[in-house]
Amino acid sequence: MSTPVQVPENAPATAKPNSVDRLRTAAAEASQVRALSTHPDVVALRVESVRTQVDRCMWVGIVLGLAFTMVNVQAFAAQGAALWSLPWFAAWLLDPMVSLVLIAVLRAEQITARYQVSDHTKWIGRTKRFAFAATYAMNTWSSFLHGDVAGIVLHSVPPLLVFCAAETAPVLRDRLTEAVLRAEQAAALADPEGASHRLDTAPAVTELPTTAETPQTASEAIETVPAAPSRPKPSHTRRKSAKPGRKLLADYVTEALAAVEPGTAADAITPAWARYTTGCSTGLSAKVAAAVRDALNTIPETTSQTSTYDTDAPGETARVAA
């Protein structure tokens, strides 16, 4: 008899808790996204994807430029040779010989620049400059002899572009690595205790089911099924099942106090500890840590008061006996 009365009273207010729940869920997700957007692991993942794109574009441009110069170098080396003769075939080997050495140097620089290892012998730069000078001279030799300005410009663009790409690629890789290191340093300064190196996404996901309360909701739903009519029964059970999904500040504080070990100092309670223990969001962890510290500070006061009461008790009993 009581359930039909409760359903009409709660029916008009069903929209407000649902909207509040959605807003609270969106705020929690936004807090997690904001916390993870500056996480070193997330920054490293994004930088690696950008690094892969940069490497692919650089290598495609370098290979296309070397393929263009190969034809001009072959024509330069095969001057006066008969078509399909042995010198004509050997002329095709000149440009790949230079290109393979240049590609090997660039491939090694791709790894050394990633770990910020510098070359103290200067032979890497010398090899790249010699390969560029040789390729440029063989590409533009005939154009300079005939005074062909258009040919000089046309045959100068690919070697210059390959040289610029070879010089710029290591710098870009070094800057990308520096971005990852700076993100890690910023996270270490923001969280010196090392909690920034953990991704606390798993506790946030496990907050929603609240397995400790689901058996109660199931039993309440079973009890309300025979008493409630057939139509309002689904909406009533939905409201009951949606409420345990919320977790208030007091719940987080209670869970954190239960996890505090005996003898723990109040200064040891930090927002990082609150996130690790309860799985709360970054914005809520400071409030949880402050509440736990206040609770730990009040415990010694109460114990000292009870101890004074205990010491005064024998005197009072002595007076009563007198």
UniProtKB/TrEMBL annotation:
Claim: Transcription regulation is one of the keywords in the record: no
UniProt keyword annotations, A-Z: Membrane, Transmembrane, Transmembrane helix
Q: Where are the transmembrane segments?
A: 57-77, 89-106
Q: Where is this region: Disordered?
A: 207-245, 301-322
Does the keyword Membrane feature in the UniProt annotation? yes
- Its signal peptide is none
User: Where are stretches of biased composition, namely Polar residues?
Assistant: 208-219, 301-310
Ranges of Basic residues compositional bias?
233-245
Name this polypeptide is given: DUF2637 domain-containing protein
Which organism does this record belong to? Kribbella kalugense
